[in-house]
Write a structure and sequence with these properties.
alpha+beta, Yope Regulator, Chain: A, DNA polymerase, domain 1, 2 domains, 6-stranded antiparallel β-sheet
Amino acid sequence: MIIKELRMNGLLDEKRRVAESLFADLGQVSQRSQFGGLGVWCDGVMFALIAEGELYLRGREALGRDYAARGMCPFIYTKRGFPVRLNYYRVDAAMWQHPHSLADLLQRSLQQARSDQASRLAAMMRLHTRPNISINMERRLYRIGIYSLEDLARVGATQAFSQLKEANHQVDDRVLFDLAAAVQGCHSAVLPRPLNEALRQWLQGNAHRWRYKK
């Protein structure tokens, strides 16, 4: 599977042979369409990308800065006509000449992808431990990029509610109070009166934003 897809994406035979060996050492590797190319997955996480005949390695924060310092160029994905820089960095020609070093970079990208997934799962569990946050609501928050209580507090209850409403206009107004209570660490029934009143006024002032959406 890997060999066939790499050839289809234009990698030269020499690169393809190196990639075949490196991926085989990682374990059960699979691929699926992603960002106009093919995402490379292992253990349920995506750690590399094959696009435009090149191999890109995932690198975020410190790892991404390290890749950039090595001269690895980030992958630019065009979404709706706008360029978006992704946290995937191109393996250049010189790196293919040093398979052992490249194998180390692959492992680092895979380890970070695993760590990121574990952090997201742990964050979701933390959200679910708060009063009023059900498993279903936890999943909805995850879809709009809120993975933890820290994220929810940073975004704020009203903004998070707005994003949920934009995704599904049938979200009940009570969700706003549930989100605010989660940040406060209490049940929505015992929200401080000034906060409760402020949220009600905010709802009244913003109801028109979703009233006519279908």
